[in-house]
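USER:
Working in pairs, take the chain set out below, taking as long as you need, and write a paragraph about the fold.
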Amino acid sequence: MGNVAFNKFNARRLLPLAVFPVIALIVMYQASTRSYDVANVGVDEARVLIDHGAAVVDVRESDAFNTRHIPGAILIPLEVLRAGVPASFSAAKDQPVVVYCGDGVTSGPEATHLLNTAGYTKAVNLEPGMAGWATAGRPVASGR
């Protein structure tokens, strides 16, 4: 009988520990599916913007950027933008900015939203991302 009481006690203590990972997964899922009201452009429209002088911002991590990126792109990972727009990018505040991530939905919309909120009102998200850019046969660079 002592073991039954001990097991009930442990179960009550362990229940919050079992519930915590489930709550964490729900919160992470909701954050990853959040939608942002930003302007999206396709590959052709992005190409026109870039040809007319738009700044290009890659918001992926450095390893993905080094593997392949749009020529002339500046690497500003999403985590950096979440902390604030780097001062070195302030000159682009009044010009068009094409923002992209790997697939156009993972971090590009959030990064574009952060830039829009910081006053970069001409920032747009490349909706198909780097994958769509490369699939369309557009130029790709590698390395830094």
Observations:
- The longest strand covers residues 55-58.
- DSSP finds six helices and five strands in the chain.
- The mean pLDDT is 88.
- Strands lie at 40-41, 55-58, 74-75, 97-100, 123-126.
